[in-house]
Amino acid sequence: MSNTLKGKVALVTGASRGIGEAIARRFAAEGARVIITARTVEAGSGRHHGGTVGVGDRDIALPGSLAEVAEQIRADGGDAIAIQCDVGDPASRAALFDAAMAQAGGVDILVNNAATAVFGQPWDQIADRKYDEIWEVNVRAPYDLMRRFAPQMKARGAGWVINISSKTAEMPAMPFSPFEKSAGVILYGSTKAALNRLSVGIAAELEGSGVAVNTFAPFSIVWTPGTAQTGVEKYRGSPGWVEEPVEGMAETALALASCDPNAVTGLCVYSTTYLREIGREIRTLDGKSLLGDWQPAVA
Q1: Is 188 a catalytic residue?
Q2: Which domains does the chain have, with CATH numbers?
Q3: What's this model's pTM, rounded to 2 decimal places?
Q4: Which of 16, 165, 199, 258 is catalytic?
Q5: Residue 182 is inside which H or E element, if any?
Q6: Which pLDDT does position 56 carry in this prediction?
Q7: Beta pairing class for 60-62 and 46-48
């Protein structure tokens, strides 16, 4: 560990499990005071709220909670503040900003990780309610939080915004894969494409201000509790299928949270691809050791 983020305050949305949890733990291991946010506060209360073929609108249990992540960070010697927030609710986002400013005095690093999706449903069968929810959570929420936190970052002299995207933002290539033809990923991918454009545009407008805005995505899928509920497990083992370790996402986030914000901004990159380009190795979430001779895991 190098205390790269010592003295910094980082806010990570969707941090009760998966990629958000990993980023929060990695940041805390490098000395950051981490504000973790999500809907799920207590252990055993996490729910996947449907919208997937085979699930419908039924709520199903998910592991992970803010309480558990905060406890792990503190057990590892880090500093965590847990604040409940539903990023799909404008009032909850406003309350998050107020609470973060009151409890931490300001935020240096904002990681917009929270997202929602619908898989397995044809485009013309997605409910209007779900359509609106996906755009609210995946695009409007990051925009709103950037608009709230960027001004105080400028006032603090520097800031780092990191938005988590997806490879599904790319245009599908022909011949279309079975995944593209049946996964129902069109809406999720469209919101992530919009997030990419939004992020680079804001980076351009903030250039020279000391606030960096960068976006990155896994080069392939990261298997998390949320991913496991999307219905894409049937594609594991298909030709070209690879899975990326969650540590690669955390390491990329750390690299983008500790860069020169006036020199590294406006990027849309893939995690482990970017790490190879800058010659950075992946470390474990506690920062104590290298992940080892990691290679893409073909299921």
Answers
A1: yes
A2: 9-278 (3.40.50.720)
A3: 0.90
A4: 165
A5: helix 178-182
A6: 46
A7: antiparallel
Alpha carbon distance 85, 93 (integer Å): 7
Our answer to whether residue 192 is catalytic in this structure is yes
Contact 18, 227 (CB under 8 A): yes
Summarised one tens digit per residue, pLDDT across range 234-246 is: 656 666 667 789 9
Mean pLDDT across 32-50: 78
Residue 150 CB neighbour total at 10 angstroms:
20
Query: Is 143 known to be catalytic?
Result: no
Catalytic residue, candidates 192, 199, 270, 271? 192
Q: Which of 8, 16, 188, 258 is catalytic?
A: 188
Query: Which residues are CB-neighbours of 206 under 8 A, at least 6 positions away?
Result: 150, 154, 212, 213, 265
> Whose CA is closest to 36, among 9, 7, 14?
14
**Dist CA 151 CA 137 (whole Å):** 22
3-state secondary structure of 119: strand
> Taking 50 as the threshold, does the pLDDT of residue 100 lie above it?
yes
Per-residue pLDDT, averaged over 133-141, amounts to: 98
As given in the structure block, the two tokens for residue 111 are 């990681």
| CA dihedral of residues 270, 253, 15, 71 (deg, nearest 10) | 140
| Residue 117: CB atoms within 10 Å | 25
The helix (H) or strand (E) run that includes residue 11 is strand 9-12
| Residues 65, 67: Cα–Cα separation, whole Å | 5
